[in-house]
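Structure in, sequence out. Go:
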């Protein structure tokens, strides 16, 4: 039996990097599981008078979705004969229900799908069997036929959808983000122009700067070198809404994306794809998308039975199943739903809080009943014994759910806890927790926020590890780490344990949520020390994972007049070549070692001999026009004047180089309109000066459109030239309009769209190649 990895763990074995992310990490015999730490169920059949391992909906279930499937699992491999005759389904209003029966991918679960939704508020009766035959033993080919069973359940009343505001009702970040941007001051990322100037920025924190000077960290190469990439997501509210990033382990940006409001990145799947949640134009609600190494969508996941997706978590296991969390509102209370779906989207297991949280078993805290979001699930994933661990923040509860039956095996924390807690500072043991996992040794580890939005701050936030004794039902604190600043995070956060291999100590990666640093990495030992830490982006759940990204697009190349020295301030100079800058980057592409810059006198820039070659030093490279002109003079580059002989257009392209000599896709050609003076026609010589009209790139948002623009048809290959003068003209149209608040310039057609919406919090904006947008108020401030 394989163990399901409870946490993304990085291994280095014989110099071969391996990663367990939402997947099986090692094969062990189930009997080797320590029964003091793990629940080993064996063969269990609690349903249908002891005949069935799992049934859905449960007998007598209330408030069932009208889009539900009906599932039965005996527990052994099904012999797929005469499946269509197994289910006889009738509804009080629907009468005889027609449908189809399928065998799920596990070859154990038979699922009935009604042809039409059930009627609201009706009682549905199910007669199952006879005829379900299973194979008890693969070796002996022993067959068994399960008996019949009848049960019924009730369909819910009309569903009232739950909004993002219901899930996250507090605006955590707006004021803090604005202040934080000021406090970050002058950092290299502030000069980036191939990203919007409001894109998340970060730098080493004071603790991170101290860690960089620590001799122990310098000596530890396994911790120091950047073999893995960090995946992070910004907050659901505030300035960083919908922003996700991939960085190196040392904090250098690799990929940045802006998605819909409330959207973000969930991490990496076991097959090396990215998982993120978003709402695309054709979707009526959020979905989980898988994107490949070129960041193209290749798969899409949603909850079954019509439940809306919850925006916290997606888990992908070894069997190809997806574990998602959802929500349903009943009598004003937001209940949680967990689904295990196979690759054909059959629901193999459904757990609902409304089925188990009844009367004294309901963990709602006093005073929470009127809040609506009384449970607030924030993760659900496999444990090493194949069960599911679930974290419910609002009621301070962690659950272990049987991966076979869907029933609760134990409760930890809150007012319905099964455990006695041992250790200092364990009353309460945790508060408002996130990202609970079970490790291979059976210990439970989580991010203990130590703070609740409504109930205050009993202690600083911490990573907390508990050792279980299921014989005595105790949970003993064996490791914890709080930030030296004593920070208290009322929302979000997470952790990941990293095995650095080569005899090096493990490290713990910590995301502190909305009140802490971007991420912190500490040694996992008795006296932890910080290895690295960055501040600036306040995110959610952290992840380190191998990654190799490429792109189907071209690198982004822009000309700007507001990123260098005096020119970067209001009314700054644009008269000197040094004031103007070329900016280029290749979003999402890994392995770039250097850049080559080419220049020509027409749009068809030859790529035979680079004018400038430089090593890649950051996400975005910046070259001044002075550097460009000096390089042209050194190479005796001949300028071709325009017909008026007082101007000359230069055309620039850049090409990234991967490894030693692998040339990647070249950028579009950038037109640079120069002023030409003292032109000597016989000698084809003259003095070049910068353009006469400023290009305020800090007011422009490259590759940012609206979500609805994603459905906009593209016009063939599009323009091969980046014309910043045309962008300026579009911006000017917005400035002179009585109603325009935001403009969108489409590079493929040259179309300029004026929009009356300011979209202050940028919730409706979305990353979209080939669009440059901007706000009227920024342009007004620049004048």
């Amino acid at each position: 039996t394989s163990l399901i990895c409870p946490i993304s763990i990085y291994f280095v074995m014989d110099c071969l990097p391996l990663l367990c992310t939402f997947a099986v990490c090692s094969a062990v015999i189930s009997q080797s599981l320590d029964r003091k730490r793990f629940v080993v169920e064996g063969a269990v059949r609690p349903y249908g008078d002891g005949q069935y391992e799992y049934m859905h909906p449960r007998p007598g279930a209330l408030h069932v979705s009208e889009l539900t499937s009906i599932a039965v699992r005996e527990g052994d491999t099904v012999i797929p004969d005469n499946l269509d005759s197994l289910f006889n389904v009738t509804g009080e209003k629907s009468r005889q229900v027609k449908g189809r029966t399928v065998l799920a991918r596990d070859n154990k679960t038979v699922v009935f799908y009604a042809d039409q939704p059930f009627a609201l508020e009706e009682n549905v009766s199910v007669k199952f069997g006879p005829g379900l035959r299973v194979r008890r033993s693969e070796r002996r080919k022993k067959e068994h036929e399960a008996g019949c069973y009848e049960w019924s359940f009730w369909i819910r009343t009309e569903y009232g959808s739950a909004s993002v505001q219901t899930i996250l009702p507090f605006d955590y970040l707006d004021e803090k983000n604005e202040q934080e941007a000021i406090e970050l001051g002058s950092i290299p990322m502030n000069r980036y122009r191939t990203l919007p100037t409001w894109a998340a920025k970060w730098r080493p924190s004071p603790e991170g700067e101290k860690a960089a000077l620590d001799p122990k960290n310098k000596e530890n190469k396994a911790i120091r070198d950047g073999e893995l990439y960090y995946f992070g997501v910004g907050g659901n509210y505030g300035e960083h809404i919908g922003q996700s990033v991939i960085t190196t382990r040392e904090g250098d940006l690799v990929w940045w994306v802006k998605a819909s409001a409330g959207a973000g990145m969930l991490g990496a799947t076991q097959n090396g794809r990215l998982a993120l949640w978003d709402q695309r134009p054709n979707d009526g609600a959020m979905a989980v998308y898988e994107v490949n190494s070129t960041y193209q969508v290749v798969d899409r996941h949603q909850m079954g039975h019509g439940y809306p997706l919850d925006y916290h978590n997606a888990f992908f296991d070894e069997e190809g199943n997806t574990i998602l969390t959802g929500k349903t509102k009943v009598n004003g209370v937001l209940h949680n739903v967990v689904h295990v779906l196979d690759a054909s989207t059959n629901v193999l297991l459904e757990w609902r809080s409304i089925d188990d949280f009844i009367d004294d078993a309901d963990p709602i805290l006093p005073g929470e009943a009127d809040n609506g979001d009384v449970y607030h699930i924030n993760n659900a994933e496999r444990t090493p014994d194949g069960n599911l661990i679930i974290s419910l923040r609002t009621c301070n509860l962690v659950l272990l759910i049987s991966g076979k039956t869907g029933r609760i095996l134990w409760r930890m924390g809150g007012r319905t806890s099964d455990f006695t807690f041992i250790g200092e500072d364990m009353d309460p043991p945790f508060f408002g927790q996130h990202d609970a996992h079970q490790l291979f040794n059976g210990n439970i580890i989580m991010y203990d926020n130590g703070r609740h939005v409504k109930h205050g701050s009993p202690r600083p936030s911490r990573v907390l590890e508990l050792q279980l004794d299921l014989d005595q039902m105790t949970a003993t604190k064996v490791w914890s780490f709080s930030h030296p600043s004593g920070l208290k995070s009322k929302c979000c956060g997470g952790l990941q344990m990293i095995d650095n291999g080569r005899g090096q100590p493990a490290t713990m990666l910590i995301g502190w949520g909305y009140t802490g640093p971007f991420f912190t990495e500490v040694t996992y030992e008795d006296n932890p020390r910080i290895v690295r830490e960055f501040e600036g982006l306040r995110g959610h759940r952290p992840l380190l994972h191998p990654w190799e990204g490429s792109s189907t697009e071209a690198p982004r190349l822009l000309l700007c007049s507001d990123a260098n020295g005096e020119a970067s301030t209001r009314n700054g100079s644009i008269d000197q070549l040094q004031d103007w800058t070329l900016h280029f980057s290749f979003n999402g592409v890994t392995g770039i070692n250097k850049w080559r810059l080419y220049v020509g006198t027409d749009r068809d820039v030859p790529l035979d001999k680079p004018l400038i070659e430089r090593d890649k030093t950051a996400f975005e490279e910046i070259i001044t026009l002075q550097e460009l002109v000096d390089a042209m003079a050194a190479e005796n580059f001949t300028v071709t004047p325009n017909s008026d002989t007082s101007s000359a257009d230069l055309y620039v392209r850049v090409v990234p180089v991967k490894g030693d000599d692998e040339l990647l896709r070249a950028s579009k050609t950038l037109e640079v309109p120069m002023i030409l003076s003292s032109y000597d026609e016989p000698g084809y010589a003259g003095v070049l000066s910068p353009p006469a009209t400023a290009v305020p790139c800090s007011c422009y948002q490259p590759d940012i459109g609206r979500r609805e623009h994603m459905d906009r048809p593209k016009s063939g290959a599009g323009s091969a030239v980046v014309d910043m003068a045309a962008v300026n003209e579009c911006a000017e149209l917005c400035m002179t309009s009585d109603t325009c608040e935001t403009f969108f310039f489409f590079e493929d057609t040259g179309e300029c769209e004026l929009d009356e919406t300011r979209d202050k919090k940028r919730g409706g904006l979305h990353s979209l190649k080939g669009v440059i947008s901007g706000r009227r108020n920024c342009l007004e401030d620049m004048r």
